[in-house]
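TICKET: design request
STATUS: open
ATTACHED STRUCTURE:
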């Protein structure tokens, strides 16, 4: 499986800023990927995180809220 930097070098969909989708459990939201960064553990770089901005919906209130956060790269999907 390719790493995020390898995909970014080959595929424009992975180069920020880009439209993407983010996953939270079974929910999937349109988002914008702003930046990639390595997430380091004790042994060095193990994962990649993406800074995303997205609007989340709260069904109970019907409200939308714009949020931004660093997310694990496996939860970020390119927009087709």
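STATUS: resolved
RESOLUTION: sequence designed for all positions
ATTACHED SEQUENCE:
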């Amino acid at each position: 499986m390719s790493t995020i930097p390898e995909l970014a070098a080959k595929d424009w969909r992975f180069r920020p800023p880009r439209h993407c989708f983010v996953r939270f459990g079974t929910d999937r939201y349109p988002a914008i990927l702003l930046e990639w960064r390595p997430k380091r553990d004790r042994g060095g770089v193990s994962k990649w995180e993406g800074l995303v901005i997205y609007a989340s919906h709260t069904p109970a209130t019907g409200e939308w809220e714009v949020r931004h956060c660093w997310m694990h790269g496996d939860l970020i999907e390119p927009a087709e």
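CLOSING REMARK: The mean pLDDT is 82. The helical segments are 4-10.
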